[in-house]
Amino acid sequence: xxxxxxxLAERSxxxxxxxxxxxxxxxxLPFLRTPRIALVSNTTVAPLYMDGLVKALEKVGVGVTPxxxxxxxxxxxxxxxxxxxxxxxxxxxxxxxxxxxxxxxVIGDLAGFAAATYQRGVPFIQIPTxxxxxVDSSVGGKTGINHPRGKNMVGAxxxxxxxLADTDTLKTLPDRELSxxxxxxxxxxxxxxxxxxxxxxxxxxxxxxxxxxxxxxAIERSCINxxxxxAADELETAREGGRALLNLGHTFGHAxxxxxxxxxxxxxxxxxxxxxxxxxxxxxLGWLCVADxxxxxxxxxxxxxxxxxxxxxxxxxxxxMSHDKKVIAGSLRLVLLKxxxxxxxxxxxxxxxIVAAIEACCRA
Amino acid sequence: xxxxxxxLAERSxxxxxxxxxxxxxxxxLPFLRTPRIALVSNTTVAPLYMDGLVKALEKVGVGVTPxxxxxxxxxxxxxxxxxxxxxxxxxxxxxxxxxxxxxxxVIGDLAGFAAATYQRGVPFIQIPTxxxxxVDSSVGGKTGINHPRGKNMVGAxxxxxxxLADTDTLKTLPDRELSxxxxxxxxxxxxxxxxxxxxxxxxxxxxxxxxxxxxxxAIERSCINxxxxxAADELETAREGGRALLNLGHTFGHAxxxxxxxxxxxxxxxxxxxxxxxxxxxxxLGWLCVADxxxxxxxxxxxxxxxxxxxxxxxxxxxxMSHDKKVIAGSLRLVLLKxxxxxxxxxxxxxxxIVAAIEACCRA
Lengths: 364, 364
Ligand SMILES: NC(=O)c1ccc[n+]([C@@H]2O[C@H](COP(=O)([O-])OP(=O)(O)OC[C@H]3O[C@@H](n4cnc5c(N)ncnc54)[C@H](O)[C@@H]3O)[C@@H](O)[C@H]2O)c1
Ligand SMILES: NC(=O)c1ccc[n+]([C@@H]2O[C@H](COP(=O)([O-])OP(=O)(O)OC[C@H]3O[C@@H](n4cnc5c(N)ncnc54)[C@H](O)[C@@H]3O)[C@@H](O)[C@H]2O)c1
Ligand SMILES: [Zn+2]
Ligand SMILES: [Zn+2]
Description:
The structure is a homodimer.
Chain A: E1 2-7, E2 12-18, H1 25-28, E3 36-42, H2 45-59, E4 63-69, H3 78-90, E5 98-103, H4 105-117, E6 124-128, H5 131-137, E7 142-147, E8 150-157, E9 162-166, H6 175-192, H7 194-208, H8 212-232, H9 250-260, H10 267-284, H11 290-302, H12 314-323, E10 334-339, E11 342-346, H13 351-363
Parallel strand pairs in A: 2-9, 3-4, 3-5, 5-6, 6-9
Antiparallel strand pairs in A: 1-2, 7-8, 10-11
One zinc ion binds near residues 250, 267 and 271 of chain A.
């Protein structure tokens, strides 16, 4: 088993990565303040994994209050949050009850925000069951819900006591979701870890075949990379680089997500196409060569990801991108690659180059 | 002007106490990250104080987005919170916008929780306009809303950047609200500050006549006392004493509030009657003498507060008190006085003594 100890300024917690973790209650028990948890999941994940986990926990004397929400980003709302509060109060959960999230990023964000705010904060444990949530939501402590006027507009930073990434759960994950998570995995290689990028090229087929050992390595490298970036820019105050580097492909990608209507493209799919735009623009700035661009394209394609952007027209892209909350005071600050494995933030790309990069990737 | 620097582990911030602070925008300006605030108030306080504050701020170039909520504890809800989020998003407030609360504890708790959760946290400034909120909400960082199933069940800890307690605002506060706040002021004297208790006895008439200098001193001593208690028990983990001491009279008082239906008794009024019960019980344990009890009774009465409990019957009191969230595992842990100015937590009072103390204070 891989055991990562995240050592952020505020609080340190372990991320355990292995197959079969869900049935190993002894890994969870030492992290509970009292033998009482509220287990938040959804109607897709609960039938697959809840029973095993509950049985294992009850065997060691942990009382479990299940809270099962409908599945989908559309339910990452105040109403779902309120459903959680309702059950917590009705079953008299108190400040020592641990809230456990069993599911993808939606369940993690919801349950995490409930933990951050129920009686002003209760302990939280995350059991992410999608690749995306294992490599992204596990690190950084972001929790929250959507508001009708915008995604993730309401939330809090709330660190878990423990993260369990059970690679076995990825066996039931739809292919498209696995690929979407892989876009973020590849991102870590591209922005700061060239050896990992090489490794991903060598092992993509095994990863997609859901080889547990390979997945565990990919998750571990991803979490370490994200943790290093987050730790170096704890308060998101870095003016250059910093946490913003985690947004490679995201400003272009958000334009696709918004332009097509949320839900049409998965986030990871939009990030993949957006990454191609960032890479193409980096080539136009003279930082990457054609072979680099093709290397990225090939890897994303092998991962089952789109490399062609949605055909919104460059003008619409620019309009949507300028609404992105990461845009600082008018200038389009983009994450680009100086070379493969070395990302920078850059605010000086010309409008012409940006348009050309977008168009190249929509035609392709 | 009095300037208190609160130095809690997490973060330090100043509390300014003076008359006329509302028009001194130069005290606020240095604490804004950008010259942009969202000003949350209610339909009672806004007509009295918003105009002056907004004019002062606009004069020094601060843009103000006003958010005016209906008045009352009944509006400390998700719906009001959502109204705040709506305006923040509609007017494109971002992470650097400061949320300012202008009002009593209800507005402070609501606006503070909005600040804690809007885009995962924005800066917060508190301008409390009731005595209760100046002496209680100013210290400790508690924010939150009510849930249909319980008061203050959803919330977060979120420290303000600055607190402005303008004693002039207390001139328009209804007498009953001023007295209710005074119950908490007297509490600080009783639990840990005998010289302050003496001072309150000497100056109660001037305080009720709203003498600015006297009020400023009372607010300052109260905030210092609360800050010292909070700092010594930052994480609310003390098994004896600690933050729990701030609940003198509160367990009995909550029984009155709940038993009579919220809103019938003001919180401070219930605390006053509850304080008499705690004091009477302390006498039965041999810790206070009859003269001590009469001293407390006289001071509370002079402050315009009730010293007779609601006539619910002792059995109903005990039932309601056992539901209080401060009750630990069955045993009724009460805050009692070893002597005036010296509170302790005590879990060993007999049922008979508790019943007798309640009955003595309901008859009285
Ligand atoms: N907190 C953070 O740091 C962070 C980081 C990235 C993304 N997010 C958030 O996460 C969400 C996206 O996460 P996601 O991609 O995991 O989406 P998701 O939670 O919607 O999961 C995708 C789908 O897979 C299903 N599923 C989950 N695990 C499964 C399994 N083991 N087997 C079969 N099906 C399974 C889900 O029920 C859902 O239908 C977004 O709301 C995003 O904002 C948060
Ligand atoms: N966060 C904390 O640490 C903390 C501490 C104590 C109480 N609280 C919360 O505070 C609330 C009670 O606070 P409160 O007693 O200030 O009640 P409140 O906010 O309801 O104010 C009482 C009344 O006075 C009015 N008012 C306020 N300022 C006025 C002024 N200057 N002139 C005229 N009228 C004025 C209000 O509009 C209201 O009608 C409760 O919700 C309680 O849970 C929070
Ligand atoms: Zn992403
Ligand atoms: Zn109180």
